[in-house]
């Protein structure tokens, strides 16, 4: 990975006929942050995400940079602690 290459927090959803377990068994070269029944939340460089899309291993939804993602999670937790709705990841388009 090039030093200047953007890293993304992204949602990986398995393609039809695949599963999260199948994705986890592959050497994808991503950092898995969260595992859900239907998708993974990963940190990965742009080139790795492009390769996953090109090989049709997963549908990729880029959410935010790691810094943005962590700030949003912190803001959501703080808002929840104060009884206010937090920012959604989808609102950063």
Secondary structure: elements and pairs:
Layout: E1 7-14, H1 20-25, E2 31-35, E3 40-45, H2 46-54, E4 58-64, H3 66-81
Antiparallel strand pairs: 1-3, 1-4, 2-3
Task: Provide structural commentary.
- Helix content is 33%, strand content 28%.
- The protein has three helices and four strands.
- The chain has helices spanning 20-25, 46-54, 66-81, and strands at 7-14, 31-35, 40-45, 58-64.
- The protein has one domain.
Considering DSSP H and I runs of 4 or more, what fraction of the residues is helical?
25-40%
Secondary structure tally, helices: 3
* SSE topology string: EHEEHEH
Low-confidence stretches: none
In one word, what is the shape? Answer: globular
Radius of gyration: 14 Å
Distance between the termini: 25 Å
* Percentage of β-strand residues: 25-35%
The major beta sheet can be summarized as: 4 strands, antiparallel
| Mean pLDDT value | 87
Instruction: Tell me the number of strands.
Output: 4
